[in-house]
Amino acid sequence: MPSDCLFCRIIAGELPASQVFSDESVVAIRDIAPRAPTHILLLSRKHIASVSQVGEKDRDLIGKMCAVGAELAAREGIAEGGYRLVMNVGRNGGQTVDHLHVHLLGGRPMAWPPG
Ligand code: AMP
Ligand code: ZN
Fold this sequence. Notes:
Blueprint lengths: L5 H6 L7 E4 L3 E5 L7 E7 L14 H18 L6 E4 L3 H4 L7 E6 L9
Antiparallel strand pairs: 1-2, 2-3, 3-5, 4-5
The structure holds adenosine monophosphate and zinc ion.
């Protein structure tokens, strides 16, 4: 675990977070600066810098993270109205934390295309 990684430190319990889900491969927390009424981050327990770095043996993890996102959307009551699952990748993608994560955003209409 990289000791300077924000999300690794949250997963390890070294930094506080509002956790909404946890299992052997995924941890979900509420985003500290929510951009929508529901804004949850699905984090891989394993440190992987981004989806660009996901190797063959970790591919199932991406499906798992999306499935947990759908489950939490239902739990949050936003599934019927619709929501967005987003991965920001790299500088142009707007990624600010280099640890694999999916944003679950919902509770309001979303614009397209994103900015
Ligand atoms: P990204 O820009 O896609 O890398 O997403 C990183 C997200 O992490 C941003 O939406 C931040 O608001 C969020 N964030 C940063 N620090 C924390 C924290 N300590 N707890 C929860 N979310 C955080
Ligand atoms: Zn990490």
